[in-house]
Amino acid sequence: MSLMVLKRFKNELIILIAIIFTISAFLYKISAKNFVNNQKSEIISSITEINQVKELKKLWKSKSISKKANIFKTLVSKDKIKNFKKKSGKLIVSYQNLNIKELNKITKNIMNNPFQIEKLEIDKTAKENYSMELICKW
């Protein structure tokens, strides 16, 4: 009897299977489109991040920063500079017998330039005298 019913409703079953297949294909299409849009937005955000890093790298690897590091020789008199070494992208400076005005001038210059400070040590040696050790890179 069930075989007879299947033969009787053969066309309806074919249409039902075709509708189920169509709905599943439509849902697959929607999910695939959402996946592609999500991947596209992730790629766009990655590209913008890469461009931002590229611009920051241009700023930080600028040739003029190396020239700005030489100003630490001229901020105070030469007898107050204990040590000055400038190697590829790294600066090591030691000062001694600085007064408050000179100390402020040096720290202001450090903060206004794109240097990455590795070590900044300020010691009070006398009432108005300070010693300073600075290691920074760019």
Q: How many domains is the backbone divided into?
A: 2
What spatial order of strands do you see in the largest sheet? 1-2-4-3
Strand content: 15-25%
As residue ranges, the low-confidence spans are: none
Structural class, from helix and strand content?
A: alpha+beta
Major β-sheet profile? 4 strands, antiparallel
Q: Please tell me the overall pLDDT.
A: 91
Q: Which assembly state applies to the chains in this document?
A: single chain
Global morphology? rod-shaped
Q: What this model shows, in words?
A:
The chain has 138 residues and is of the alpha+beta class. The chain has 2 domains: 2-60; 63-137. 59% of the residues lie in helices and 24% in strands. The chain has 5 helices and 4 strands. Strands 1-2-4-3 form a 4-stranded antiparallel β-sheet, with helices on one face. Strand 1 (81-87) and strand 2 (90-98) form a beta hairpin. The longest helix is centred in the N-terminal third of the chain and has 51 residues, at 10-60. The termini are far apart. The mean pLDDT is 91.
Can you lay out the helices and strands and say which pair or pack?
Layout: H1 2-8, H2 10-60, H3 63-69, H4 71-74, E1 81-87, E2 90-98, H5 100-111, E3 116-124, E4 130-137
Quick summary of this structure?
With 138 residues, this protein is α+β, with helices and mostly antiparallel strands. Helices cover 59% and strands 24% of the residues.
